[in-house]
Specification:
alpha+beta; 13 helices; 4-stranded antiparallel sheet
Length: about 375
């Protein structure tokens, strides 16, 4: 919780005023809420839509919500969605074309103004994931036309993690449970629970826009001791860990490891891990037309390296036709060659891919097994 910004205390009524203040500033407020047996991200009409008194239980291949005995609104770890859903949407129209009666064709980009989102409850691991996607989608020669404008208008309220699940390993990746130094956000809050079950929030500003919103809320000064203790306790209760040492070299040196065969025997190549991952960004494009052929549109949609068509070459077929090659591509890119392309790991330790894998494949276990095989390649005792 290291910060130089003043720490202020906010109660549940103040949290409600925060949501109202953001909506009054014409933000569409997105935050966690309980729906369909999960804690999902959706538009909030008020703070009452938050999952007060709900937590989660997660393990490899397992996720369920559970009732708590307090009013905590952020006492849960990452759910099936990430903020990628709103910044880098699953489907986006890129352009439209119309053919007039004289045969001329007019092409126009999708000119709808980008939404103005306020994200409430962004976990530190997901804050790092947004920073990773900033680098991927806006840091190159050709910035993404959909992501960039949405990201530029977003107001981010971080909720530091005080209740990690059994699949979380952000501490070992340096992405949580507190906000990592140098992170970009507007407001950061840390939730603690009073003896009577009510929730309180230690809040600080991280930008001029955050300061302006915070100034309008009913706050009082605080030393932040309880908040710091809650975050430190979360770091000690992290459900998993992964040794990040030399992951790039490990991935490059284990391309022929036998472990890839073992994981391939379990992997369904369903692509769930790429869909729930907050940093996976691959897409494909498709064209649609009306029946007359006078109107056409190009749409971009999420794609996955687990899809056979993802690496399909005309006249050759898919480059990666086996489950082994596709899982290996995903993991070695995420943990290894991502460094070559973008200067960081593509994993933030949120654990979503573990919880939402139908067969419970755990990438922290896979990395441990690959290390063990690399250290003892012959398998001799």
């Amino acid at each position: 919780m290291g910060t130089t910004a003043p720490l202020l205390d906010l109660d549940e009524a103040g949290l409600a005023e925060l949501v109202a203040a953001l909506r009054q500033r014409d933000y569409t407020v997105i935050g966690p809420t309980v729906r369909d047996g999960a804690i999902v991200l959706a538009e909030l009409a008020s703070a009452e839509d938050l999952p007060h008194g709900w937590g989660i239980e997660a393990e490899a291949g397992t996720y369920r919500v559970r009732r708590r005995e307090d009013r905590a609104a952020f006492a849960h770890s990452a759910g099936p969605q990430s903020w990628k859903t709103f910044l880098h949407p699953p489907r986006a129209r890129l352009w439209q074309a119309d053919r007039a009666g004289d045969g001329t064709v007019t092409v126009r980009e999708d000119g709808a103004p980008p939404p103005r989102y306020a994200f409430l409850g962004v976990r530190p691991c997901d804050l790092r994931a947004i920073a990773v996607q900033d680098r991927v989608l806006t840091g190159g020669t050709y910035p993404d036309p959909v992501y960039g404008p949405r990201r530029a208008r977003a107001f981010i309220v971080v909720a530091e993690c005080t209740e990690p699940s059994a699949v979380c390993f952000c501490t070992s990746m340096g992405t949580g449970p507190g906000v990592p130094g140098g992170s970009s956000y507007d407001l950061a809050l840390t939730e603690t629970v009073e003896p009577d079950g009510a929730a309180r929030y230690t809040v600080r500003a991280g930008s001029p826009a955050g300061e302006e919103v915070l100034a309008a809320l009913p706050t009082r000064p605080t030393d932040g001791e309880r908040a710091r203790a809650a975050v430190a306790g979360a770091a000690e209760r992290m459900g998993r860990s992964m040794d990040p040492t030399d992951l790039r070299a490990l991935m490059a040196g284990t391309m022929t490891a036998e472990r890839w065969d073992q994981v391939a025997n379990r992997c369904l190549t369903c692509g769930n891990c790429t869909m729930v991952c907050p940093t996976c960004f691959c897409t494909t494009t498709e064209e649609v037309t009306d029946l007359t052929g006078d109107h056409a549109e190009r749409w971009r949609r999420w794609d996955s390296c687990f899809d056979l068509d993802f690496s399909h070459l005309h006249g050759t077929g898919p480059v990666r036709s086996s489950a082994r090659s596709r899982y290996r591509q995903w993991l070695t890119h995420k943990l290894g060659t991502w460094h070559d392309q973008f200067g960081s790991s593509g994993c933030v330790g949120c654990g979503r891919c573990i919880a939402w894998c139908p067969v419970g494949i755990d990438l922290t276990e896979e990395v441990t097994a690959l290390r063990a095989e690399a250290a003892n390649p012959g398998g001799a005792p």
